[in-house]
Automatic annotation (TrEMBL):
<dbReference type="GO" id="GO:0005524">
    <property type="term" value="F:ATP binding"/>
</dbReference>
<protein>
    <submittedName>
        <fullName>Seryl-tRNA synthetase</fullName>
    </submittedName>
</protein>
<dbReference type="InterPro" id="IPR045864">
    <property type="entry name" value="aa-tRNA-synth_II/BPL/LPL"/>
</dbReference>
<dbReference type="GO" id="GO:0004828">
    <property type="term" value="F:serine-tRNA ligase activity"/>
</dbReference>
<dbReference type="GO" id="GO:0006434">
    <property type="term" value="P:seryl-tRNA aminoacylation"/>
</dbReference>
<dbReference type="InterPro" id="IPR002317">
    <property type="entry name" value="Ser-tRNA-ligase_type_1"/>
</dbReference>
């Protein structure tokens, strides 16, 4: 509510500032003297939303410039107040918790959560990692793979070899149906084909 009030004031200040610029421009076109007193009359209307072109016309250019300067200062102050109000609002919004239905149980943890409904088979089963699964089907040999090619290397064997070949076949079939032409490159190639700046040092051996 306060921020809305400040926004209303800021809009009024901006309108008044534009009217000042317009009036100064009109007076300059009419070649009015730019001298004269800068102080505003004591009975001058200082309520920004009440300013009008008719109110500004009797003033000198110097007085209007003085008024515009005050309006610019007021704009800075109003923007600062709006930023502070918005910051306070956001901080207070963070303190507001979620609105809960009356049926939600009150608890310090998830132990007392209420089960509203379930779908399908909700039986809890043990989860296995990929290492567990390949070991269960006897589908790889990590020890001999590491001995041959270094750490984290392995031999695929048994059902996993068939699975890999099946996936390759599936991918080739899908790509062929989409118009791709399968290519099986040679294992060996000429030295000039390699895109290596230091061929002998960077070539995998």
């Amino acid at each position: 509510m306060l921020n809305g009030e400040k926004r209303f004031n800021l809009d009024a200040i901006n309108r008044a500032s534009k009217m000042c610029s317009t009036t100064i421009g009109d007076k300059m076109k009419k070649k009015e003297q730019q001298g004269g007193p800068e102080e505003l009359p004591a009975d001058f209307v200082t309520k920004f939303d009440a300013l009008s072109l008719d109110v500004l016309k009797p003033l000198s250019i110097a007085q209007i410039k003085c008024l515009k300067k005050k309006l610019d200062e007021e704009t800075v102050q109003t923007n600062l107040k709006m930023e502070n109000l918005e910051k306070d609002r956001n901080e207070n919004l963070k303190k507001i918790g979620n609105l809960l239905h009356d049926s939600v149980p009150i608890s310090d943890n998830e132990d007392d959560n209420k089960v509203e409904r379930t779908f399908g088979d909700c039986e809890s089963r043990k989860c296995y990692s990929h290492v567990d699964l390949v070991t269960m089907v006897d589908g790889f040999d990590g020890e001999r793979g590491a001995n041959v090619a270094g750490g984290r290397s392995f031999f695929l064997k048994g059902p996993l070899v068939f699975l890999e070949q099946a996936l390759i076949g599936l991918a080739l079939r899908i790509l062929s149906e989409k118009g791709f032409v399968p290519i099986y490159p040679p294992f060996f190639y000429e030295k000039e084909v390699a895109q290596l700046s230091q061929f002998d040092e960077e070539l995998y051996r």
